[in-house]
Amino acid sequence: MGMCLMIAAVDVAAWGNFLLVILMVAVGLGTVIFVHELGHFAVAKMCGVRCDKFFIGFDIGGYKISRKWGETEYGIGILPLGGYVKMMGQDDNPANIAEQVKESQVAGNTPDSKEIVGPDGKTYLVDRRSYLAKSVPQRMAIISAGVIMNVIFAFIFATVAYKIGVPFNPVIVSQTSPGSPAWRAAVRRGDEVIQVGDIENPSFAELMGSVTLADLKNGLPFVLERGDEQIKKTLVPEQESDLARVGLAGPSSLRLAPQMATRKDTPAAAASPEFKGGDEIIAIDGAPVANNAEFTARLIEKSDQPITVTVLRGAKRPVGQPEAEPTGGEKIDVTIAPRPQRHVGLVMQMGKVVAVQDNSPAADAGLKAGDFIESITVVGAEDEAKSLIRDPLSLPETLRKLGQEGAEVELAIRRAAPAADGKQSTETLTIPLRKIDWIEEPISENDPVAAPALGIAYRVLTVVKEVEPGSPAEKAGLQADDVLLSAEILFPADMKDKPEIDPVTFSQDDKKDGAGWPQLLSSLQSLPPASQVKLSYKRGSETKEAVLTPVEAADVFVIDRGLVFEWVNRIRISDNWSDAASRGYDETTRSLTMVYRFLSKLGSQVPVTMLGGPITIAKAASYSADEGLGKLLIFLTMLSANLAVINFLPIPMLDGGHMVFLAWEGIRGRPASERVVMTMQTAGMVFLITLMLFVFSLDLQRMFFA
Q1: What's CA 6's distance to the chain center, in Å?
Q2: 342 within 8 A of 389, measured Cβ to Cβ
Q3: Which pLDDT tens digit goes with each residue over 514-573?
Q4: What is the spatial distance between Cα 607 and Cα 617, in angstroms, rounded to a whole number?
Q5: 345: nearest Cα among 238, 243, 453, 466
Q6: Cβ(286)–Cβ(309) below 8 Å
Q7: Residue 80: exposed, middle, or buried by beta-carbon count in 10 A (0-12, 13-18, 19+)?
Q8: Burial 44-65 (b: 16+ CB within 10 A, else e)
């Protein structure tokens, strides 16, 4: 009975929170629409225009909730995709000018009538309270009022948000993507970006937005904080497929994620007592750890040993102070076993060096991108002829261990550029390895492999160098010089809720040789037991297939043991309304300019698939509302800015299109001809309908195929 009551209480609380989020989203989105239409309505009333309707949503088929006060019917329509104000003699379609004139006409010259010039040059008597009876400046004021109200309320939303407090994720680097601009510039784990462009103390979302819209030729200025030192760098984002990037990974904390503290089929998931969401790691084997970088350094040191993790469970922090010292709670020790690496027994050929890190041992020795490393030997070792490059995927860990001992290595390299006699030049470089306490693993699909002890990133080809005796690959018949083409994960037949993982096609492109193989091996580490890999490969002119069951290595271990961490969270909050208003002004200005920059680069630097329709907007709003009212208000600031800018674009049917027609009328002294209006209006309508269908299809694709 007690357990049933507890579960019911949890369900009620969860549903209550869900319904609260839905309510906040509905009120928030409704407010953005409401203030836009309120602008039109208020200025129209001030100009003496008769307003018949003021609706949020569209009353399609007459389905609505409404009430009439005075001459205006106020209501909520069944289709919640906008809103409208119905004014006498006004139509969102300027092509209906004849109908507008007819609706506004009055019989005889009376004090309630006014003479206007129609698009045909003829004069008409219309009701003085008609929209058409108002001067061009008055009508421009009515049309622009919606956009102006959106800008005003964007500022109000942002100001209130910063007074309440806005949660954000700071840009504390947890990892850099091998070979990326940030990696090449030697940005380190633990560095904090305190300025990007003109944004001080940016959030990770602001960083991503700035990088996406950055100048891909001249780059983006960064200011980083490393201990007590401030470092200025200019990073030039790279765009290989979709969005531009600099290669920074988000700020991992030491708090376990509330929804999923551990990954399935990992040592952390099998640990006892079990980890729970919200647990905070405070020590490893009794030694305190202050941040995720220190935690990772300890894991690297003890990759082949069990570790005892001390977590603080149930501790509390003051509201609005996520980084304050926790109070209370219970300390619990959890032992996690080491995590042997799963493999299939294939050793691949090493490709060329694709990037060299600034101020690294390799850079100091003169190693360059495009060089091929023929061999690496340890200086002073007894067997100097023995190359360390047996398996290029295990090379980074081998060099790390040697670096801890202060070793030097000798590299025999082949320069990519041909010498004057037509032959490639070769050199021998002696390089001291640096001591490292971090790892640099591939993040995205096309990332190379990094050896941080040297400061290089290189490709691992999908050409088999050798097959380990007794391995799954040998049993399946693979041989040296086979070329891997693709791989597919096969889950156990009796497994429920199989994840959808697309087959991997290995790149044979010169710039991305081998791309996909390191990422495939990384995914093998989290596969359920009895999962298999189906490989397609080429031997000579023949294409073959093989199904392999990964096995655990005896002496190679994975650093990550399966814990899932939350990102570091902070609060931006103003002590007074003056500071909140200053922050609100900056936020509003940034949101407005961001929309213009986004639109200017749409289809080139920004793919059109970045667009979103009503479903995407509602989902984004719900995510923001789930983080609190402050975050929702910042989202509404951005949405209001979007609505203001987009509505003021010179597209027929939008407010900006109306302004163009009004400007033309002001210059000519009469409205544009019906033929011109019809032509432009048709083109505008086709464009808007096509755009709406396109973004709605993107919404559906994200819902069902993402």
Answers
A1: 37
A2: no
A3: 567 888 888 888 888 889 999 999 999 999 999 999 999 988 899 999 999 999 999 999
A4: 18
A5: 466
A6: no
A7: middle
A8: bbebebbbebbbbbbbeeeebe
Decide if 461 contacts 349 (C-beta within 8 A): yes
Residue partners of 508: CB distance under 8 A and separation at least 6: 462, 483
Nearby residues of 321 by Cβ (< 8 Å), 6 or more positions away: 571
Q: Which two tokens stand for residue 407?
A: 């070793």
CA distance 571 to 586: 17
Contact between 179 and 355 under an 8 Å Cβ cutoff? The reply is: yes
Do residues 630 and 569 make contact, with C-beta atoms less than 8 angstroms apart? no
Burial class of residue 286 (count of CB atoms within 10 Å of its CB; 0-12, 13-18, 19+)? exposed
Tokens of 213: 């819209």
Which contacts of 424-427 are long-range, i.e. CB under 8 A and separated by 24 or more positions?
Answer: 426/374
How far apart CA 222 and CA 181 sit, in angstroms, is: 12
Tens digit of each residue's pLDDT (9 = 90 or more) over 378-399:
987 776 556 788 889 999 999 9
Cα–Cα distances in angstroms (integers) from residue 462 to residues 347, 431, 506, in the given order: 9, 28, 7
Give the 3-state secondary structure of residue 436: coil
Which residues fall within 8 angstroms of residue 303, CB to CB, at 6 or more apart?
Answer: 338, 557, 558, 559
Three-state SS sequence of 156-178: HHHHHHHHHCEEECECECCCECC
Identify the three-state secondary structure at position 58. Answer: strand
- Sign of the Cα torsion 217, 597, 639, 706 reads negative
For 102, residues 6+ apart whose C-beta sits below 8 A from its C-beta are none
Q: What is the mean pLDDT of the chain?
A: 86
Which residues are 346's β-sheet partners? 467
The label of the residue with tokens 């020790």 reads 333
299 contacts 268 by C-beta, under 8 angstroms: no
User: Measured between alpha carbons, how far is 672 from 662 in angstroms, rounded to an integer?
Assistant: 9
Cβ neighbours around 608 below 10 Å, total: 12
What are the backbone dihedrals phi and psi of residue 261, each rounded to the nearest 5 degrees, phi first?
-75, -30
Q: Which of 650, 686, 594, 591 is nearest to 144 (CA)?
A: 650
Residues of the chain with CATH 2.30.42.10: 252-341+563-567, 346-549
Query: Measured between alpha carbons, how far is 434 from 455 in angstroms, rounded to an integer?
Result: 9
Tokens (6 digits) for 460: 């691992």
Helices 2-46 and 614-626, interaxial angle, to 10°? 120
190-206 pLDDT, tens per residue? 899 999 998 999 999 99
Q: Please tell me what DSSP assigns to residue 371.
A: -
Residue 10 confidence (pLDDT) above 50? no
CATH of domain 346-549: 2.30.42.10
On the CB side of 391, CA atoms within 13 Å amount to 13
* C-alpha dihedral, 326 to 328 to 334 to 339, nearest 10°: -10
Q: Can you tell me the distance from the alpha carbon of 82 to that of 655, in angstroms, rounded to the nearest whole number?
A: 14
Q: What spatial distance separates the first Cα and last Cα of the chain, rounded to whole Å?
A: 41
Return all residues near 190 (Cβ < 8 A) that are at least 6 apart: 172, 173, 226, 291, 293
CA torsion through residues 273, 275, 281, 287, sign? positive
Half-sphere exposure (Cβ direction) of 223: Cα atoms closer than 13 Å:
11
Helices (H), 601-673: 614-626, 629-647, 655-668
What does residue 475 show for φ and ψ, rounded to 5 degrees?
A: -65, -30
- The 8-class DSSP code of residue 576 comes to S
Q: Supply the CATH classification number for the domain 252-341+563-567.
A: 2.30.42.10
Q: Is 70 exceeded by the pLDDT of residue 470?
A: yes
SS3 letters for 407-470? CEEEEEEEEEEECCCCCEEEEEEEEECCCCCCCCCCCCCCCCEEECCCCEEEEEEEEEEEECCC
Q: Taking the CA atoms of 122, 126, 129 and 130 in sequence, report the sign of the dihedral they define.
A: negative
